[in-house]
Amino acid sequence: MKPAPFDYIRPATVAQAVDALDQHAGMARVLAGGQSLVPMLGMRLMRPSALIDINGLEDELGRIECSGSETTVGALVRYATLERSPVISERLPLLAHVVRYIGDRQVRNRGTLGGAVAQSDPTGEMGLVCLALGASVLARGSGGERTIPIEQFFEGSYANVLEPEELLVALRFPLAPSRCRFFERGRKHNDFALISVVAVGSEDADGRWHDVRIALGGINDRPVLAPAAAARLEGARWDAAAIEEAAQLALEVADPPDDVRASADYRRHLVPVHVRRVLTDLAAGEDR
After folding, report:
1. Mind listing the pLDDT tens digit for each residue in 31-41?
2. Cα–Cα distance between 106 and 83 in angstroms, integer?
3. Is the entire prediction scored with pTM above 0.90?
4. What is the arithmetic mean of pLDDT over 221-235?
5. Mean pLDDT across the stretch 99-127?
6. Exposure class string for 64-96: b at 16+ Cβ within 10 A, else e
7. Which structural domains are found in the chain, ordered by start?
């Protein structure tokens, strides 16, 4: 099937892109990597009045910048760039690691961090990692720029708090904890994840853990944090009993769907199993 007719707009600046979004009053869509948008257009799941192609805005949206402990990644930074960047590898190693789980080489050459977060797929890896790392979303509209904590960004399945006239321009990351671990389970390679788990934290010289965050994907209508599980481990020395208790507490945020890939009961069963394994690996000194 072919897309429904639309106007094609290729702005020369971010300001022009924002103006185009404003002029189309919520009926335009932004084209970055196009890995999700183009198939949706082809199946006519989306029928925008205009397509705003921002691929010419690399100078404004394609940079990785460091300021003190903060790292800002432009919305047009490609997955392949994240995978190869020495800056990302040093400052945000979890991001560099997890991007390798996305699609294949062709997808990673085109897909963008900003596009993935704006897509807000509840099983998507990038939204989950941004949540685990406590990122902030920078969005620009006709009224100026605003900063949205990632914890307040996702509203539901493929839904977020961006206004129709706003453009996601960057993700800003604080200093990352020293240790991280990621796991995802799908039916087959490159399939949507049934469940994904990220755990991050820092262990001090006394063996106590701080800055613990546990994020889960595929078990709710959006990526979610498991605050009770993290609170159980914050400031504590971890043993098998503490990890088991945290794994069970992670079920508090589980409200998984029933779909063609797995039942809700099966996904719920997987939550404590894989949270326990991820935390055990993290405590044992695994870097990812």
Report:
1. 998 888 888 88
2. 13
3. yes
4. 98
5. 91
6. beeeeeebbbbbbbbbbbbbebeebeebbbbbb
7. 7-53 (3.30.43.10), 58-173 (3.30.465.10), 179-283 (3.30.390.50)
